[in-house]
């Protein structure tokens, strides 16, 4: 019990002194402000999409709001670490501009003590980001994708507009007037064109129902109308006659049609952003197993072929000893043919190995590394920002903000560039770590140099 109390007192002295709280009071508001700005900027593109869903496609506001709420956690996975850099540099810039860092050093406060609260904050954001991604972001991504798929499937039902064509499966529908019977939408003076079946339907009234068990299935019900159809028929009395097109018209009191909207599999499949580290590792293992077995088999074949080539060369040396020049040339031609065939086989094996290696789940592996690398960006940024801030003792808020924006853009360019090259197979998947490691090493070098002062 005594040991625990001593540890807690030591931790309080290290991270929660008056000096630390003073630093946190300056840092946390800057971080929150940066987080809001970065999140808003990254949301802008998606906000236009959400606004369009509501204004153009008449998607209910509660569904649009739910999409937004489940999109924000995914955006935060990027903005939480990115907001560290400007917040720390602005804080250090303000302290250095007011000569507070110089004053602290004059009072005997060490460089590491000045930097310690910032490092503690970076470690906290790193740990929080990791668990936030695993526990909240995965579930939010899944809800977003499923709800978005449902909205896309429901678009034909929700974008009902008078005197405009609505595409629903194989049908094109237009109507002159829309009325409401309570909450039920009723269409009036309806025209339906079935291009595939070469039919046209006219009806006084009708409704569109969505199958609650299948969001891709729509039921169209019409009242008091007519159906026109062009059909090809043969004269039964003349078997060899050509088909003739005939036009038929029939009236109806009630007519039911079924329409289906097909969504791409990507709207239903569970991607890496919706998987935990454990699930993604299992997915990679299952996808890789077949390819790895094939690669191992081809590696074994390559070893066999290389050994056969070496044995043939040894055999050639043995068999050409004591032979005349003509006999040696004859033997060389014989062995060159055999070795040439083996070399062709070796080239084919190498190509097969390369193809199967390219078939490994690069995207899934890259996303797995990102789940670790992205939270650690917070720690890399905070060490770099603190060290950078200490090296520039007379910077202000504006200078700190400018430097942070440049460093953030460079990091983002490195990340996007490396990911594109990884997906093209030019770089190995491990390069997903490179931007984080580069910033971490740069920060550590500056940190060590500053401590040595």
Describe the structure concisely.
The protein is α+β, with helices and mostly antiparallel strands and 453 residues long. The protein is built from eleven helices and six strands.
Can you tell me about this structure?
The protein folds into three domains: 13-155 and 367-452, no CATH class; 170-260, no CATH class; 277-363. 65% of the residues lie in helices and 16% in strands. It is built from eleven helices and six strands. It has helices at residues 2-15, 18-55, 61-82, 84-97, 100-106, 111-158, 277-319, 325-358, 362-391, 397-423, 434-452, and strands at residues 166-168, 171-181, 184-194, 199-210, 217-233, 244-260. By secondary structure, it is an alpha+beta fold. The two termini are 39 Å apart. The radius of gyration is 35 Å and the shape is flat.
How do the strands and helices of this protein lay out in sequence?
Elements: H1 2-15, H2 18-55, H3 61-82, H4 84-97, H5 100-106, H6 111-158, E1 166-168, E2 171-181, E3 184-194, E4 199-210, E5 217-233, E6 244-260, H7 277-319, H8 325-358, H9 362-391, H10 397-423, H11 434-452
Antiparallel strand pairs: 1-2, 2-3, 3-4, 4-5, 5-6
């Amino acid at each position: 019990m005594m040991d625990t109390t001593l540890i807690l007192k030591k931790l309080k002295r290290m991270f929660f002194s008056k000096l630390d709280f003073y630093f946190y009071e300056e840092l946390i508001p800057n971080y929150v402000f940066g987080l809001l700005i970065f999140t808003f900027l990254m949301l802008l593109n998606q906000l236009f999409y959400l606004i369009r869903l509501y204004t153009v496609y008449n998607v209910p506001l509660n569904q649009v709001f739910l999409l937004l709420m489940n999109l924000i956690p995914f955006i935060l996975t990027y903005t939480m670490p990115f907001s560290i850099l400007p917040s720390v540099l602005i804080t250090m810039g303000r302290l250095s501009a007011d000569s507070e860092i110089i004053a602290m050093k004059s009072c005997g406060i060490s460089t590491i003590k000045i930097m310690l609260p910032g490092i503690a904050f970076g470690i906290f954001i790193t740990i929080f980001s990791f668990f936030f991604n695993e526990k909240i972001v995965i579930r939010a991504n899944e809800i977003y994708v499923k709800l978005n798929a449902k909205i896309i499937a429901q678009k034909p039902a929700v974008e009902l507009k008078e005197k405009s064509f609505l595409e629903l499966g194989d049908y094109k529908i237009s109507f002159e007037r829309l009325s409401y019977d309570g909450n039920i939408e009723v269409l009036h003076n309806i025209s339906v064109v079935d291009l595939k079946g070469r039919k046209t339907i006219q009806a006084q009234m009708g409704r569109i129902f969505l199958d609650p068990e299948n969001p891709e299935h729509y039921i169209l019900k019409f009242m008091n109308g007519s159906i026109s159809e062009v059909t090809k028929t043969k004269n039964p009395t003349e078997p060899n006659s050509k088909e003739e097109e005939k036009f038929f018209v029939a009236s109806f009191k009630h007519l039911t049609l079924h329409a289906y909207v097909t969504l791409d599999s990507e709207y239903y499949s569970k991607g890496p952003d919706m998987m935990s580290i454990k699930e993604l590792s299992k997915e990679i293992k299952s996808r890789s197993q077949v390819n790895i077995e094939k690669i191992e088999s081809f590696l074994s074949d390559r070893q066999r072929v290389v050994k056969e080539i070496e044995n043939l060369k040894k055999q050639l040396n043995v068999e050409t000893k004591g032979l005349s020049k003509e006999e040696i040339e004859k033997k060389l031609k014989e062995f060159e043919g055999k070795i040439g065939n083996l070399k062709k086989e070796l080239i084919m094996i190498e190509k097969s190995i390369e193809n199967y290696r390219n078939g490994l789940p690069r995207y899934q592996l890259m996303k797995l590394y990102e789940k670790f690398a992205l939270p650690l960006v917070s720690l890399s940024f905070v060490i770099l920002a603190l060290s950078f801030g200490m090296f520039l003792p007379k910077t202000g808020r504006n200078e700190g903000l400018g430097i942070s924006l440049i460093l953030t853009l460079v990091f983002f360019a490195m990340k996007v560039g490396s990911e594109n090259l990884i997906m093209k197979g030019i770089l190995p998947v491990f390069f997903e770590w490179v931007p984080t490691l580069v910033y971490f090493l740069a920060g550590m070098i500056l940190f060590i140099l500053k401590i040595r002062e």
